[in-house]
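Before relying on records like the one below, remember that each one covers exactly one chain. Contacts with other chains, cofactors or solvent are not represented anywhere in the record.
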Amino acid sequence: MKRVLAFFGAPTVLLARTARATAREGLSWRESVVQLHELGGRSVWLVMSGMAFFGAVLVTIANSQARRFVGNVAVLGPAYFELLIRELGPVVSAVLTASRAGAGHAAELSTMGVNEQIEALEMSAGDPLADLVAPRVVAGLLGVPLLCVLGTVAATLSASAVAGLVFGVDGRAFMDPRYVDGWDLLAAALKAVACGLYIPLAAAVAGLRARGGAEAVGEATTDGVVAASLGCLLIDFAVSLGFQVLRL
């Protein structure tokens, strides 16, 4: 429990400090756009291709289960579509984003710390939280939900194509929204936004702590990826559990 509190506590404290610094110093929208390109633009190929393969795997598993229990893979399509929209699409897309963007943020910030560029920024009246962390947080809040949507679409299209071309069933069964309601979309949106907030904060916590040499940069990069990826899974579990408790 103590580790869980520390795991989420450090990014929460950093978020509060960043919000205060940004209210005092202002936000650079130009840098936010640059970071949005770094997070979203450079991750879109990884997320869409990874989710396309994930959709193919998902329909293959559905076909295997259908052969064992119901005999028709098309029957499982709507249930898998709801699972993809509510659970797997947001969290797998976020984890893929965390693997790249988390590493990039942590490596960049730790390199700046090791090279004393952050101290130089402070000496020139700059604020590292407002100038470095806040634009990355804004980019995460905008970029990760968009990547989750694109990843879910890619997985749906690949699942539909594999169902039709490989297993000979109507691929539109994996695009059937009969079980999807507003609560499913709300749960997916909460997960995407929470992961978009958490990924840059977790990477920044690891990156800003780094001091020393190249070894410290490597450790910070690894810590950033692990924290960001594991945090996405914990957020997915917490949101899913909350909706289950509320019977939504």
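The first helix runs from residue 2 to 25.
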